[in-house]
């Protein structure tokens, strides 16, 4: 394995961790936005909206404060939720103690938020000991009216610490805010040492990089991976010293070189011995190698000693092969985690699903999320080594139980006391006794032999790999119902959530997911096809479907699509205008004209701007290094972009390939040399990597229309 291959392995494994960290923050912000939307729809909010100054001073709005406390209780990792009334200059908080202690910081962040001129923002402020994070949202939502108030959500600082603390790596994980300050850091180097090494080029790369895509940069002895999520302006960076990164491969190369040298020397020795010694001795060597596990006498003739040495060399080679196998499980788990978060989209991902034997090959499957109950209390009772053993034991129990019940399964440790698995199944929970018995066996075994219990969330059944991310979300939603159902049980999505919440039918969620993916891919035809299926999905079970419920589903579809893909822009349409759409054809036509087409055009414009930047980087690089032996893979590695992205950018912007672009740059440079100098044709051909002057002359004539010698004479005359 070369150094570049090792970097690629590290890139795949660690970029998944960065995407995971970004997804956790995005999920937290999305849940927060959903809670704010529900708060805005409440009666308490409407009463506050129409409250005058006399009412506000006469009695505190107790119901409004209770609604804030309810929103606080529905969110995780939150210390306080505050409503700021800009009209009456009042503040209402779910946690009055926090409001008293952080009053000045809240005022500072509101002033800073007003200066940004945004509808919502994630802000951070630090003191000598801690870093505090606030999320500010303008009210009312989805309108360009002057703000009537703000919702300020104060996040618990331990949330961001947990994101980086769960990573186990030889480098450093960092969360960096929009002002290039390190919010959280976990690893070998402290904040001051890292801040001194972070290059200015990293920030320009992060600013130009598309959201939710990891990229790499090598600078001053450090290897950086970076990613910016779509929902916030904070970035996630992994940094490791190249010397530390390449240490395993250096050791492996040294060991491989030593083994190769020993094998070569002994091969030469054995070849010489085969000429001088009898075939009888060689038969003895062969017999000894066949029984290399048997204990040989400490003293024997040359053949016995030679057999011992060859046996030792073979053992070392087998040991090296075993070490190489340790890379595969880590890469497989990183890939599975990425698939659970984003779904299986590209043909390359489908091929890797088959390669890793993940049960997403068209057969029915479910996603299970298992959570250790009272995980935080266990962290206080047991040390890190014990927790690692417990987590390893849970993974083994899941895999062994699936094997025992003859079910294909791929499982991984998500972190934070949670585990996920994709399991082959058929039918609903009541019609899949094998799967149900497997989960009961897992729960009962852990209860009997481990010092804790577990709760299991189970998604509905699907067969399309592109929707595995929805199954993962469903399993997590079902697991959260343990607050009502209690711990230690198995909670199936269709029996705990589906059919209770409006708009959560699997077919509707799959349509929503497919529409988002089609718009993201700028596949207008596919997006139209998905919209055409709205009437089929919406009218399923129409006997008990109320028109207001359907109207709510359609409005929610438009809001979700805009929130996911508009890069933070506010929803530009009034909800009242959407309520005037009275038929499904009107809705699909409105979605085409006002959501799908504008978003695809916006994404296409952003993609073209990105491609133009990439083409400019490649062209500048080729103009500086045209005398080097350049390969597209090497150029992309130095620029921190993927080969596929570079090919697509050159094709879309310049209608050319990498080889053609390099060829024309070299031809233009050869024209300058012929016009302004006396450089011989042989030297020009050599500097431009032609085997001889004749090949260069043929290429030059094909482009210019005349041989280089004639071109030189014409330029001078």
TrEMBL record:
The chain crosses the membrane at residues 258-279. Pfam families: GGDEF_2, HTH_18. Residues 612-714 form the HTH araC/xylS-type domain. The keyword Membrane applies. Keywords: DNA-binding, Membrane, Transcription, Transcription regulation, Transmembrane, Transmembrane helix. It comes from the Bacteria. GO terms for molecular function: DNA-binding transcription factor activity; sequence-specific DNA binding. The keyword Nucleotide-binding does not apply. This is AraC family transcriptional regulator. It comes from Paenibacillus sabuli.
């Amino acid at each position: 394995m070369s150094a570049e291959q090792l970097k690629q392995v590290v890139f795949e494994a660690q970029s998944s961790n960065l995407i995971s960290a970004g997804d956790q923050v995005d999920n937290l912000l999305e849940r927060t936005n959903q809670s704010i939307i529900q708060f805005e729809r409440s009666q308490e909010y409407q009463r506050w909206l129409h409250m005058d100054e006399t009412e506000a001073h006469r009695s505190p709005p107790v119901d409004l404060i209770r609604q804030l406390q309810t929103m606080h209780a529905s969110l995780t990792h939150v210390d306080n939720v505050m409503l700021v009334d800009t009209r009456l200059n009042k503040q209402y908080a779910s946690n009055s103690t926090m409001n008293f202690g952080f009053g000045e910081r809240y005022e500072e962040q509101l002033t800073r938020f007003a200066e940004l001129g945004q509808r919502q923002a994630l802000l951070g402020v630090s003191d000598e000991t801690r870093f505090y994070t606030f999320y500010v949202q303008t009210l009312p939502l989805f309108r360009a009216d002057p703000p009537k108030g703000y919702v300020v959500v104060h996040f618990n600082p331990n949330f961001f610490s947990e994101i980086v603390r769960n990573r186990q790596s030889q480098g450093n994980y960092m969360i960096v805010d929009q002002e290039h300050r390190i919010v959280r850091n976990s690893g070998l180097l402290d904040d001051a040492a890292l801040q001194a090494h972070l290059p200015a080029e990293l920030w320009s790369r992060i600013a130009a990089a598309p959201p939710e895509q990891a990229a790499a940069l090598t600078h001053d002895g450090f290897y950086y991976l970076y990613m910016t999520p779509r929902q916030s302006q904070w970035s996630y960076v992994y940094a490791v010293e190249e010397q530390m990164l390449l240490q395993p491969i250096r050791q492996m190369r040294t060991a491989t070189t030593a083994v190769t040298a020993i094998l070569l020397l002994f091969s030469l020795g054995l070849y010489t011995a085969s000429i001088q010694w009898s075939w009888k001795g060689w038969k003895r060597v062969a017999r000894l190698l066949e029984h290399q596990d048997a204990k040989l006498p400490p003293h024997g003739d040359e053949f016995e000693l030679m057999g011992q040495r060859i046996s030792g060399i073979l053992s070392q080679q087998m040991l090296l092969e075993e070490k190489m196998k340790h890379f595969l499980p880590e890469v497989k788990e990183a890939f599975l985690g990425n698939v659970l978060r984003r779904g299986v989209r590209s043909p390359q991902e489908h091929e890797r699903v088959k390669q890793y034997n993940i049960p997403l090959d068209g057969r029915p499957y479910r996603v299970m999320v298992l959570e250790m109950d009272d995980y935080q209390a266990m962290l206080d009772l047991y040390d890190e080594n014990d927790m690692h053993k417990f987590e390893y034991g849970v993974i083994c129990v899941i895999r062994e139980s699936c094997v025992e019940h003859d079910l294909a399964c791929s499982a991984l440790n998500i972190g934070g006391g949670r585990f996920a698995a994709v399991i082959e199944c058929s039918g609903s929970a009541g019609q899949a006794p094998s799967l149900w018995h497997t989960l009961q066996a897992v729960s009962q075994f852990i209860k009997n032999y481990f010092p804790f219990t577990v709760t299991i969330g189970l998604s509905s059944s699907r067969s399309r790999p592109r929707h595995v991310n929805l199954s993962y979300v469903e399993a997590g939603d079902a697991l959260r119902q343990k607050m009502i159902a209690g711990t230690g049980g198995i909670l199936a999505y269709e029996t705990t959530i589906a059919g209770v919440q409006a708009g959560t039918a699997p077919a509707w969620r799959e349509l929503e997911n497919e529409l988002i993916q089609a718009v993201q891919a700028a596949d207008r035809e596919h997006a139209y096809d998905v919209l055409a299926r709205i009437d089929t999905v919406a009218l399923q079970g129409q006997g008990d479907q109320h028109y207001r419920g359907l109207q709510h589903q359609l409005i929610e579809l438009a809001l979700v699509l805009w929130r996911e893909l508009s890069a933070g822009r506010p929803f530009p349409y009034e909800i009242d205008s959407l309520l005037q759409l009275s038929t499904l054809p009107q809705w699909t036509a409105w979605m085409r004209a006002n959501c799908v087409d504008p978003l695809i055009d916006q994404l296409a414009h952003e993609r073209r701007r990105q491609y133009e930047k990439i083409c400019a980087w490649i062209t500048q690089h080729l103009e500086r290094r045209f005398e080097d032996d350049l390969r597209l893979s090497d150029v992309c590695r130095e620029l921190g972009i993927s080969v596929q992205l570079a090919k697509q950018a050159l094709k879309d912007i310049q209608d050319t390939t990498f080889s053609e672009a390099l060829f024309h740059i070299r031809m233009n440079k050869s024209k300058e040399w012929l016009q302004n100098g006396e450089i011989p044709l042989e030297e020009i051909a050599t500097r431009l990597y032609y085997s001889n002057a004749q090949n260069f002359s043929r290429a030059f004539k094909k482009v210019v229309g005349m041989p280089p010698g004639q071109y030189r004479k014409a330029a001078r005359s």
